[in-house]
Structure formats: C-alpha cells, structure tokens
Amino acid sequence: MHTSIIRFLLPALALSACTAAPDGRLLSPDGDLAVAFSTDAAGVPVYSLVSGSDTIVRPSTLGFRLLGDNPDLASGFAVDGIEHSAHDGKWAPVWGENDSIADVYNAMTVHLTQKATGMKMDIEFRAYDDGIGFRYVFPAQAGTDSLRIAEELSQFAMAGDHTAWWIPGDYDTQEYEYNITPLSGIRAKNSNDQPGNVSATGFSPTGVQTSLLMRNDSGVYINIHEAALVDYPAMHLDLNDTTMMFTSHLTPGIPEAKATVALPFATPWRVVMVGSATDILATNIIYNLNEPCALEDVSWIHPTKYMGVWWEMITGKSQWSYTNAEDFDLATFDYSKARPHGKHGANNANVRRYIDFAADNGFDQLLIEGWNIGWEDWFGKEKDYVFDFVTPYPDFDLKALNDYARSRGIKLMMHHETSGSPANYEAHMDTAYALMNEYGYDAVKSGYVGNILPKGDTHYSQRMVRHYLDAVRRAADHHIMVNAHEAVRPTGLARTYPNLVGNESAMGTEYQNMSTQHVTILPFTRLKGGPMDFTPGIFRMDLGSFAPGNKEHKRATVANQLALYVTMYSPLQMAADLPEHYAEKPDAFAFIREVPVDWSESRYLDAVPGEYIIAARRAKGGDAWYVGGVNAETPRTASVALDFLTPGRTYEATLYADTPEADGHTNPEVYDITRRTVTSDTVLSIPMARGGGFAISVRPVDANN
Ligand code: NOJ
Ligand code: CA
Question: Which residues have C-beta under 5 Å from ligand 2, the single-atom ion?
Fold first, then answer.
C-alpha cells in the first residue's frame, strides 16, 4: 500500500492535516491512512477509514445501548468541538521483540453532547502509520455516576468480501483451529461443532473473535482487535454477511448489563491494523495504545526459559493426581490414608530428575503441575472449592525440592489451577502468593479450566476481566510474574504490567496434532495482544511411543519446532518435551539451549498467513542473530537474505533444517545440521517440508567479536 504515488502525495496530505480540524479528518503521520468523522442527519456518530486508494472501513456508526434510566447513546448528538494533536515518542519495554518501540501518531478527540439528555461522550481517535484506534470516553458529569451498558454499537463496515482468518465467537475459549474463508463463508462454517475445546456459547452464526485477520482483493491486510481491555467485557464481532458490516458484541456475564461503568470512564481501544502481511506482524499499535508501565520497580521481571513436569501428564504418561478418587476420602482430604496409584508425575524423585536436566542445560525454571492436593476429583465437577494452592501432596517435598533447585541454580515455577472458581482463587490468593515468596518462586502459571463459577458467568465477562487483571496486580505486589491460561486473550496490558509474561488464549502444543497452518497464523492474530505460552519444542512426535495408549502424532518436524522459538515471540518459552527425548537428539537440542528469549531487534522477512512465516531477531544487547521459518502444508524453498547482518563482519551460521525426506505428517523426526561462514551478502536457499521449517543461529566469528 505504501506506493510511490502515495509518497508523492504526502506533502499535500500533510498540509491538509493542519487545516482539517473542523471537519473531523485525521491522517496518519505518513499520510496514508485517513479517518473521517461526522454526525449524520439524526446525530449518529459516523467514522470511516481509507488507506491510499483502498477503503478499509466504510461509513460505520458508533454508540451504545443502555439499560436503566439513560436513553441509548446512539443518536441525537451534536459536535461541541474537535481537538487535534500529534505525538512523536518512543519507549523501552521491559522485555520484547525490540529494545525500543516508536510511538508516533496523530490524534483527534471529538466532543459530543446528546442534545435531549445533555449526556457528554467523547470519541478519541489515533492514527498511526500501521493502523488506527478509537475509544469512547465518558467524562464525569452531573446527574450520572455510572452507565449500565446493554451493548456497544461500534460498527466496522468492510468494503468487500475479504478473505478472513477467523475463529468462532465464544464467551469461554479461543482454543480453536483457524478457519480461512471469505467473509461470506463464515456462516456456513461457523457452528458449535467446530473442532477444539468448545464450550458452545456461540452467540451468532456469523459471530467471530478478535483479533480478526482479513485481506482485501488488492492484498491489503486488515486486522481488528482491541487494546487495553480494562474493567470491561471482551469484544466479539458479529457480521452482517449481506452488507459485510461487523458490529461489536460484548461478552455477557451474570448481571443484566454487559458492563457497568463508573464515570469518568474510557472504554478499551478498538483497533484496525492496516498494511502488508509483514506490517501486521511487526506493528506495535496494540502496545502503543496501552498505558505506560505502572510498576515502579521492574528489576525482578525477567525473561524465562523453562522446562516442566507437564508434557508427561498432557500425553497421559503420568497423572496430576496422587491417588484415585475412589481410593480416597474426599470428606477429610486425608492423603495419609490414601492408596497412591503410582502414576503421580510430581513426585520427589521425578522432580529431582527434571531439576538436574534443566539445570545442566542452562534453563531458568522448572514448572511442576500436580504438586498440590485436589487433583483426584475436580474436572467438570463445578465445585466452588477444590484447590487451596498451598498444600503439597505427600510425595512432593516443597522445601527440599525448592532448596535443591536453588542449589542447582534454577527456580521452581508455581502452578495454580483455579478450576474455574475465581472467588476461591481470590480468597486464597494472598496466602498462595505469600507461600511463593516464602519458598522463592517468582512465576506462576495459572489456569481457568471449566465453566466459570458461579454458573452463568463466562471467561470473558466484565467480572472476569477484572479478576485476571487483579491477579496480575496483586502478583506484582509480591514480585511475581504471571502466565495465565484460559484467561481472556491479551490486549497489550503487558506494557502496563510487564509481570504479565504470558497467556494461553489459543490452541497451544497441548492440542498435540493441530494443523500445520496454526503456527503460521497465530503471530498475525493471537500474538498481537501479547505473548503466548505456546510450549514449543516437541522432539518425539509419536506420542504413543512413550505414553501408552496415546494415538496422536504431532504433525511438525523437529526443525519446525526449533523455528517456533523465533517465530512465536514470548519472553517466557518452554522446552515442552521430556528430558529423555532431548537427550536422544542433543545436536538439535543445542538450538533450544542457545536461543535467547529476549531481543534487541526483530525483522519479519516474509510471511503469508496460513502458509509460512520467516523472522529474524538479534539477541538482546548482543550481535548474534537467530532466524526461524515455519511452513504449513505446501513444501517450499525459502530464500533468506542475511542483509540484516552488519556489513563487513563475518559470522558462522548453524542451520537446523528439514532433510529432503522430512515430512511433518509422515517423517517428522529427521533433520540436518550444517555450518557455514556467512556475511550480510549471503542469501540462503532453504527447503521447508510439509509442517516443516528451519532455525539458524548466526554468531559473529570475526575479530570484532
Ligand atoms: C489447562 C492448561 O492449558 C494446561 O497447560 C494445564 O496443564 C491444565 N489446564 C491443568 O491445569
Ligand atoms: Ca488450555
């Protein structure tokens, strides 16, 4: 979209930005994106968005349906004034893909008054070069302390039947495969029998979740998501597939109002990203629309590479529980009288074995699930109280294991499964975090499996959005980093609370054999809001070979699994497979040992969602580069120009690649490792198998090193 014609027009457009205030026009700093705001004859707020010659959002209305005494805030508005401003800044994230992020935008605030009621509502727009954001701001005003919102009425009218990468609308899970269809094809494919961990709360046959990726006929990518989801329900999108108009659909909870907001109040930002495929991968607009870091001391927050006593339970080789529910008195929780079933993974000897392996190989932490009592009888039972988050099983010596881990130079990572009972977690949270402080844990993986209690609440309701952020804030008070599974999908809040180091909110490796295209879509969608604890690094693809009865085969090559450490950015990365499987392939494991989890610089070299992604990143504060490529179903040869290297310097590249026989479906465990000298002039030609990929470490070897 950034054609030379557009660049040529730039000076003229930039000039009009200075003179356009009265008519509600807002241009991006490069002049390519143009927002137009007005009110129609009925006083309905309307905006539209164009990018060069492409209409991105046709005229779309804005407003709210309210409950209670207040009439809807949907029409009858007069414009009191429009203010313009510009911002040219940058900020340094505590961890991230880049050590500095440019934050450059033009802004416009529209002040509205509803004539009949006197209600005041502002709409703030920001235009960046790679997208726009807008939000509603309700100033404090006489006579109205709060609003009860029945529905937000933000429209996003698309200009055509775009190709879309989408997952079904659902109030409880994002753990779906992506569908790739035209917008007009959503209805036919969208049903509650979509594969995945579906909780069947589909609200509309054309309802989808954000981030929603689309591409128009001229190849421009459009992505609708939200930023800074605070104190408000998550937004879904409902498509009118005749007009190709999306309307916001807020997630309901138990109260009649989807959101109750105390004034003054600002909604989350509604974001429309616009650009090429690699522009969408690289944009920081979601983080830029979030508030700066709210924590004064961030010295305790650190990128973390970890292993876990986990995959062995996921695959069924061992279990979280200590005994069987029928061999145990659930009334007394007295494990001394219980007969162990002998498959408890989190036992002292096994945990020590993992500690040794993780420490020997330079990991920072070891996650242990199933360390605490209660796993015998909880799943699907909808009990208010299952876990207390502090009492270990009899064969897990909390103090001795933490001491041993410390003596080996690593930390244990805490696990809090809340069993979908936020009230129980809230009641135990301070003692749970205090226990972590006592033993020196500084990171927790939390989870929200099952229907949210009390019955009728949902994972993405206003009440639960408050809960997740409250858990992160309270964790920060205890200097604890949080990785929350099954929580609401992230919206860039890690800028404000960088101890939010991970989320799940999509299908991760625990789905085992999800499609090969999945990892070529997530960086365009789910990852825009924040990092994912995807748990890559599986080396043994035939799961039945070590977990008796497991019929699944992971459809990814070893080289593909290595590439994920580069293509799926996260400051928290797991090596998910078992120590014995890494010991079988020490030469490939060397890449996982070496690859950093924090970066100074990132480049997205080439990508097509659903087909492949190739990314290069420079280690934080260092000279070494790491390149990753992941491929979906069609085998292809990637051409990788190393022109990001410093000219004149010499590097040694170690390439971990698919062999010619490799195939993610049928022959996934074969790989080739080669070394060669490279410079910034080198162009590598690298075959990628079906479900395959490659990983390269590029380290300087010249005198400047
Ligand atoms: C679901 C999480 O995604 C998974 O990683 C975890 O092991 C289980 N819940 C148990 O808490
Ligand atoms: Ca999960």
Answer: 485, 504
